[in-house]
């Protein structure tokens, strides 16, 4: 019965979420992969950028996703592309961190401006231990332990 009610609730009110994985690799290299529902992402990018292209996806991603080192340096993202897989789109960005992720501040605002029920999950994979962050509309950037 509960499963049927949940399925009905999701059919009436879709889930709005993204999943972001931040991987710290040797030499301070960061790889970020954002998974978002294609329809939601397309609507947000068109609203902000006026159209949909590879460069508009890159601008939207850079404007909504941020990482600042503990010392205050904002990580500049390099766009590595987008991949469509069914109803999901995967965005990939790379960067380099000098001081490691401990104490870094993460901002994940994708689609928060578009849906009041948006939930953004960020999973950080690092040598010093993994961490998970949850972002909801109105949330400020969060600091990693």
Tell me the span between the first and last alpha carbons: 41 Å
Q: Could you tell me the number of beta strands? A: 9
Largest beta-sheet characterization: 6 strands, mixed
Kindly state the percentage of residues in helix.
10-25%
Order of helices and strands: HEEHHEEEEEEE
| Domain module count | 1
Quaternary structure state of the chains depicted? single chain
The coarse overall form would be: globular
Radius of gyration: 16 Å
Approximately what portion of the residues adopt beta-strand conformation?
35-45%
- Walk across the major sheet and give the strand order: 4-5-2-1-7-8
Mean pLDDT: 90
What does this structure look like?
This protein has 145 residues and is α+β, with helices and mostly antiparallel strands. The chain has one domain (16-143). The chain is built from three helices and nine strands, in the order αββααβββββββ. The strands form two sheets. It has a six-stranded mixed β-sheet. It has a three-stranded antiparallel β-sheet with strand order 3-6-9. α2 crosses α3. The longest helix is centred in the N-terminal third of the chain and has 12 residues, at 38-49.
Index terms:
145 residues, alpha+beta, six-stranded mixed beta sheet, three-stranded antiparallel beta sheet, 3 helices, 9 strands, 23% helix
């Amino acid at each position: 019965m509960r499963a049927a009610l949940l399925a009905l609730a999701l059919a009436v009110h879709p889930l709005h979420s993204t999943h972001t994985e931040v991987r710290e690799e040797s030499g301070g290299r960061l790889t970020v992969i954002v998974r978002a529902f294609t329809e939601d992402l397309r609507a947000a990018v068109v609203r902000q950028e006026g159209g949909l292209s590879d460069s508009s996806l890159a601008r939207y991603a850079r404007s909504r996703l941020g990482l600042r080192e503990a010392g205050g340096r904002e990580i500049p993202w390099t766009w590595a592309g987008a991949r469509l897989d069914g109803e999901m789109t995967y965005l990939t960005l790379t960067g380099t961190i000098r001081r490691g992720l401990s104490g870094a501040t993460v901002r994940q605002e994708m689609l928060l401006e578009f849906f009041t029920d948006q939930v953004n999950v960020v999973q950080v994979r690092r040598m010093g231990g993994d961490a998970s962050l949850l972002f909801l509309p109105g949330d400020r950037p969060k600091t990693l332990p």
